[in-house]
């Protein structure tokens, strides 16, 4: 096929509404060398050009045909960022004007990463398997103890950042979202990560890591890193979605590594998690030892722990939900934690942000390129607005013995103790409110830890003991238990603004 035939075939694919006919026409396109070239450069998720393509009409003077040997050098320079900015726009425009109309249109479609004919990577691979690499990362199911194959399991904190997968291909790299879209705001970190990989490759004695980073004796880097990008002091994760602003201050919290050939493969790939973790620890260690000071903080490794049973999983979940994001990011630096505390306040609740939850991972599991029970997540999935009907103090001997330990809320006739989610200031404020209610109810405010006290809502309203009691409290929880209680309930905020309506919603 020449450019004219390729263009007509693309138009025919766009015009038909029949899936079978689309696939037949696409099969013909993919069978030709030029068609295959156009499909690969337009749909390969690992190839990007760093510019927004603008259709530039041919001036029809030179009328040059769209040929691989003419177009590929330009695409290579763009994809390798050897040609960028205004210079890239100028050269692309000049080439489009020199091509004939079909060629100019084809180049525009390729640079747009979309032939605009109603096909996608999966459609292309259905007619020619393996032509387009499918970007697919491992994703987690909700924790289900019945799916645990054996104990112990590995546990990590679940971070509420932006999942970003770093791909190095033929010595060039880029960050991608979980759906394979390029994260341009992290491009300024690419050279730092490649430098870290080169340092690790040159200094490590771990053969598995060497083979993971490079499969041609160190000549080129081809590997994948999986993790979360966290903004820290700048606290603006929205910057990851923008293309015109660098995510300055971002840290990469890594939790997986593998070779690019493994990541490109289909199904369950790579070494078992335990071996991948050893390689990742070595990668980060060597990178930090060899990188300059201004780059060392960029690369972090997500902490990992062992859990031996379901009870320990739930204990770690409570620890995660009690750990502030500032504490996690500061890594023991008290001054940094104080700075981060001010920058990591939840705008909705006015409270410090906390970790999202935990991940439970099979240490012997391979990297499944799909949603898998090899990784399971536990996080606060829902919230409900529930009425406060009782109070209890902290445990005897604890710092909260003579102040607020928690609230008792009522849900469909079931009393639920909510002791988590309160800051020390919250507890002090609520203690003062409770003392006013206790006086109106004619009782001593020190009611102890268990069982505490609770009242019928009618009695609370009758004496107007509604400073603390009787108010709506937004409570987050992991799941409803068989007896109607809530697993891992935590206070989010008072919802006086919603008094009179009850709402249940799934958390975003």
TrEMBL record:
It catalyses: ATP + (deoxyribonucleotide)n-3'-hydroxyl + 5'-phospho-(deoxyribonucleotide)m = (deoxyribonucleotide)n+m + AMP + diphosphate. The keyword DNA damage applies. GO terms for molecular function: ATP binding; DNA ligase (ATP) activity. Pfam families: DNA_ligase_A_M. Residues 146-323 form the ATP-dependent DNA ligase family profile domain. InterPro entries: DNA_ligase_ATP-dep_cent, NA-bd_OB-fold, NAD_dep_DNA_ligaseB. One of its GO terms (biological process) is DNA repair. Keywords: DNA damage, DNA repair, DNA replication, Ligase. The keyword DNA-binding does not apply. Its cofactor is a divalent metal cation. This is DNA ligase OB-like domain-containing protein. It comes from Ancylobacter rudongensis.
């Amino acid at each position: 096929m020449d450019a004219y035939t390729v263009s007509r075939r693309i138009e025919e694919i766009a015009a038909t509404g029949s899936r079978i006919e689309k696939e037949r026409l696409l099969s013909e396109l993919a069978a030709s060398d030029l068609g295959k070239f156009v499909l690969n450069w337009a749909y390969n998720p690992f190839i990007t050009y760093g510019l927004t393509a603008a259709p530039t009409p041919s001036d029809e003077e030179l009328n040059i045909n769209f040929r691989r040997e003419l177009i590929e050098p330009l695409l290579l320079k763009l994809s390798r960022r050897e040609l960028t900015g205004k210079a890239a726009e100028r050269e692309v425009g000049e080439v489009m004007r020199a091509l004939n109309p079909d060629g100019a249109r084809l180049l525009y479609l390729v640079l747009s990463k979309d032939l605009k004919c109603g096909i996608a990577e999966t459609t292309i691979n259905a007619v020619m398997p393996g032509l387009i690499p499918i970007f697919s990362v491992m994703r987690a199911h909700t924790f289900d103890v019945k799916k645990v194959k054996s104990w112990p399991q590995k546990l990590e904190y679940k971070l509420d950042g932006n999942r970003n997968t770093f791909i190095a291909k033929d010595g060039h790299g880029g960050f991608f979202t979980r759906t394979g879209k390029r994260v341009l705001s992290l491009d300024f970190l690419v050279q730092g990560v490649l430098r870290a990989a080169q340092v690790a490759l040159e200094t490590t004695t771990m053969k598995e890591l060497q083979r993971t980073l490079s499969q041609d004796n160190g000549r080129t880097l081809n590997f994948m890193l999986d993790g979360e990008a966290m903004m820290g002091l700048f606290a603006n994760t929205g910057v990851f979605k923008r293309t015109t602003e660098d995510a300055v201050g971002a840290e990469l919290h890594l939790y997986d590594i593998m070779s690019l050939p493994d990541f490109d493969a289909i199904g369950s790939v790579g070494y078992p998690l335990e071996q991948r973790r050893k390689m990742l620890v070595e990668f980060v260690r060597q990178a930090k030892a060899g990188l300059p000071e201004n780059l060392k903080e960029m690369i972090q490794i997500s902490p990992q722990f062992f859990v031996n049973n379901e009870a320990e999983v739930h204990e770690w979940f409570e620890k995660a939900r009690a750990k502030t994001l500032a504490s996690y990011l500061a890594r023991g630096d008290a001054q940094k934690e104080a700075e981060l505390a001010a920058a990591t306040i939840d705008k909705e609740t006015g409270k410090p942000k906390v970790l999202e939850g935990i991940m439970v991972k099979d240490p012997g599991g391979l990297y499944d390129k799909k949603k898998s029970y090899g990784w399971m997540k536990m996080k606060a999935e829902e919230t409900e607005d529930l009425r406060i009907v009782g109070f209890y103090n902290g445990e005897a001997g604890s710092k909260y013995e003579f102040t607020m330990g928690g609230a008792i809320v009522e849900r469909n006739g079931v009393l639920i103790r909510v002791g988590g989610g309160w800051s020390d200031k919250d507890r002090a404020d609520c203690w003062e409110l409770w003392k006013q209610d206790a006086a109106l109810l004619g009782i001593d405010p020190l009611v102890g830890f268990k069982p505490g006290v609770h009242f019928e809502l009618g009695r609370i309203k009758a004496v107007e003991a509604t400073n603390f009691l009787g108010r709506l409290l937004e409570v987050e929880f992991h799941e409803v238990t068989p007896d109607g209680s809530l697993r891992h309930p935590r206070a989010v905020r008072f919802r006086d603004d919603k008094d009179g309506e009850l709402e249940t919603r799934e958390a975003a």
